């Protein structure tokens, strides 16, 4: 067994900075989204995934892959969203065991109203403080890390 490859000071600063930034940014975005629209960041993520598919509906498995959540977490969250009228479950005619999650008209209205202030919050918190090269570097770093860890 080899010794751990500890992070050096520079790597430690980058890693801890990333963790702090990610946590605080998520909390900030969630607070603002809740205040502006009554949606949580999790609600928004599900609604975005449904608006990204042509007919506004997807199988639970496909939705779980799109949002990168475990099926149990997604199932509980979908139940809460369904009670609020944002989504509905629809039976699949081809597969009696399967079901679709579909965006309701209320869900579509909610995402359409929430998106403009949310993107302004993202822009203000993240991108307004970066120049074009820094945005490109951030995108490149994200692509490299995501490529190394792959999907699920």
From TrEMBL:
HTH marR-type domain segment(s): 1-147
UniProt superkingdom: Bacteria
Pfam families: MarR_2
InterPro entries noted in UniProt: ArsR-like_HTH, HTH_MarR-typ, MarR/SlyA-like, WH-like_DNA-bd_sf, WH_DNA-bd_sf
UniProt xrefs under PROSITE patterns: HTH_MARR_2
CDD domains found in the cross-reference section: HTH_ARSR
Protein name in UniProt: MarR family transcriptional regulator
Organism of this sequence: Pseudonocardia charpentierae
Lineage: Bacteria, Bacillati, Actinomycetota, Actinomycetes, Pseudonocardiales
């Amino acid at each position: 067994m080899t010794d751990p490859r500890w992070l050096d000071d520079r790597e430690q600063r980058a890693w801890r900075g990333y963790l702090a930034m990610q946590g605080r940014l998520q909390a900030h975005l969630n607070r603002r989204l809740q205040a502006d629209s009554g949606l949580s960041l999790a609600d928004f993520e599900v609604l975005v995934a449904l608006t990204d598919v042509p007919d506004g509906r997807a199988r639970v498995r496909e939705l779980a892959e799109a949002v990168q959540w475990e099926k149990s977490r997604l199932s509980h969250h979908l139940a809460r969203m369904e009670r609020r009228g944002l989504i509905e479950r629809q039976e699949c005619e081809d597969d009696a065991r399967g079901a679709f999650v579909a965006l309701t008209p209320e869900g579509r209205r909610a995402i359409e109203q929430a998106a403009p202030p949310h993107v302004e919050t993202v822009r203000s918190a993240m991108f307004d403080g970066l120049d074009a090269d820094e945005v490109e570097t951030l995108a490149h770093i994200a692509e490299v890390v995501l490529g190394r860890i792959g999907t699920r």
